[in-house]
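Quick one, tokens below:
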């Protein structure tokens, strides 16, 4: 069971002022601490000698004061480190809500470390929540076709339903749905591994897009979308068609899902001779993606917001799988500014370049 944080959810962080942390370097702060302690000890020893105190009394007293000053400043130095230790232990036990409260406003390396730790904790908490949501979504998505298959097969076995072509077609559609879900999970495992083998070959880019769009048009027949393709006939590229088909299928399907019925989705591509890249833009007209959300939507398990003319559902993996497939080919996927609507720009190298493996 996940441990709970002692700090209430949503409670403001308590800011603690440290007597050290004003400088941008920990070495400078330690040097200043030594100088201050030395000056105080020297002045105190001089005053005590002036008033006639014995050296046997003045020396221990000045040492006690020096140790007190050093302890005060060192406590402010190590307090964030102790909180970092406690927070790391809590995160190891599964509590991703903990945050380090001390040292977040300082300028030294400890302040930078605490801010980086809190940012990491935010990311881990988000990923953990999205993982839990994805497990719930996948469990629900798997339960539906499995239950339908079980009911239909039982009815056929009991003789309640005849194994007609229509009923068998229903069984086949449910198995296809299961296969799609399994494919998503396999893609997720490949993403976690960080790489996948590529079957690189040269192919005609327009023909590839035609073959990719055709099944999407069939599946989208009930929404009356038009997919407008504008690609030169002479573009050829090298790559793994299966992985690239994942990329373009997910991007175009996302554009269809977030377009009102009866509207157009534009797919246009051209060669960038300067960089040796093939640039493809997938535009669904009308809708826009706020700039602050453009990077977030490519994170795993993040689902786009629904609205008029959009569909919900899915596992939240489509765009992250698309970005992964592009990165395997040395390319990128991003949302760019476009007054016409949401514009996903895909940049892929025309010639495949073998990248070194992670283990090399």
């Amino acid at each position: 069971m996940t441990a709970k944080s002692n700090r209430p959810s949503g409670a403001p962080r308590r800011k603690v002022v440290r007597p050290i942390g004003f400088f941008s370097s920990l070495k400078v702060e330690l040097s200043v601490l030594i100088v201050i302690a030395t000056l105080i000890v020297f002045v105190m020893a001089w005053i005590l000698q002036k008033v006639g105190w014995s050296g046997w009394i003045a020396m221990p007293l000045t040492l006690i004061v020096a140790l007190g000053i050093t302890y005060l400043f060192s406590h402010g130095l190590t307090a964030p480190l102790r909180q970092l230790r406690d927070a790391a232990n809590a995160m190891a036990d599964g509590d991703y809500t903990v945050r380090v409260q001390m040292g977040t406003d300082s300028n030294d390396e400890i302040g930078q470390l605490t801010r980086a730790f809190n940012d990491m904790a935010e990311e881990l908490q988000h990923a953990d929540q999205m993982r839990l949501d994805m497990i719930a979504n996948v469990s629900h998505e798997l339960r539906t076709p499995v239950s339908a298959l079980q009911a239909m097969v039982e009815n056929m076995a009991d003789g309640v339903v005849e194994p007609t072509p229509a009923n068998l077609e229903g069984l086949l559609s449910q198995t296809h749905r299961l296969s799609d879900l399994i494919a998503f999970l396999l893609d997720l495992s490949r993403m976690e591994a960080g790489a996948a083998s590529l079957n690189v070959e040269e192919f005609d880019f327009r023909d590839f897009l035609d073959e990719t769009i055709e099944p999407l048009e069939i599946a989208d027949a009930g929404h009356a979308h038009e997919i407008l393709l504008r690609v030169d006939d002479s573009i050829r590229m090298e790559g793994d068609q299966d992985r690239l088909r994942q990329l373009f299928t997910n991007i175009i399907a996302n554009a269809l899902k977030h377009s009102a019925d009866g509207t157009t989705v534009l797919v246009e591509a051209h060669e960038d001779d300067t960089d040796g890249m093939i640039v493809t833009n997938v535009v669904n007209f009308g809708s826009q993606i706020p700039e602050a959300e453009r990077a977030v939507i490519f994170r795993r398990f993040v689902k786009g917001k629904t609205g008029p003319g959009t569909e919900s559902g899915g596992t939240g993996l489509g765009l992250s799988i698309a970005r992964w497939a592009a990165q395997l080919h040395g390319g990128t996927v991003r949302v760019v500014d476009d007054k016409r609507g949401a514009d996903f720009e895909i940049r892929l190298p025309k010639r495949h370049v073998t990248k070194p493996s992670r283990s090399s």
